[in-house]
Amino acid sequence: MTAFVNAVIRSGEADMVTKEPLELKYAAALDKWGWIELPSFKSAEGIRRLGDSLDAHGVTDIQCLRPLPKGVGRGHSFSDVFGWERFPLHTDTSFWSEPARYILMQSSSDSPTPTLLLDKRKVAGLLAQPSGARAIFRSRRKDGPIYCGLTDTTKGTPGWAIRFDPTHMVAANDAAKDFMALVNAALSDAMQFHYSGENALLIDNWTCLHGRGCVPEIDRSRVILRAYIGGRQ
Ligand SMILES: [Fe+2]
């Protein structure tokens, strides 16, 4: 982890300058906010070490994500449904038996298209609403559809883990419809993360919601590198 020592970590509050091994700082910032910025990250050499330091083993191959117009992506993918428009807030891999724990994303070039982040504290606030506890969804999974709530506390995470993806989960009661409206309203509270230089974004996919801003014409050739850390397909 020496590549990360003495770096600045940005998260939901203030920048933190650390001279400690960053394993500790990662854990503290992720636990508090559900996401951090890694200001100088070498994907190829760093990602597996990151998985080891987060104690979330199992790292997917690095995927290359390109903005696409509607209707040409994989079925039910966000690109297929929304094209260059804004993606709604969600968690990734909701259809896995255990969704990916962390998402690492980095842009191949500076990008004006933000990743939208609703941090852990705000997500906890939504889940604490009556609709958060009562919501039932019909969820598409690899081995068939099931009915489920928003949280799954059996996966070893302390307290709760949210699973929410409006392209794979359909509201099955009024509370679920209310919760979806709450998430849409919370977009105005979402933080905009921008990719520049060698920065990368690490998201705790079990506690944080994310989305993507509209892709302006000038940015439609951007490539986002993405890898999942942890979870089970
Ligand atoms: Fe996503």
**Based on the structure given, which CATH architecture is correct?**
4-Layer Sandwich
Summed up, the helix count is 6
Q: Report the count of strand segments.
A: 14
Major β-sheet profile: 5 strands, antiparallel
Determine and state the CATH class.
Answer: Alpha Beta
Widest sheet: strand ordering? 3-12-6-14-4
Overall average pLDDT = 83
Give a verbal description of the structure:
- The protein is of the alpha+beta class.
- It has a single domain, classed as Clavaminate synthase-like (Double-stranded beta-helix, 4-Layer Sandwich).
- The chain is built from six helices and 14 strands.
- The strands form four sheets. It has a five-stranded antiparallel sheet. A four-stranded antiparallel sheet has the order 5-13-7-11. Strands 9-8-10 form a three-stranded antiparallel sheet.
- It starts with 7 loop residues before the first strand and ends with a strand.
- The structure holds fe (ii) ion.
- The site of fe (ii) ion has 3 residues, from loops.
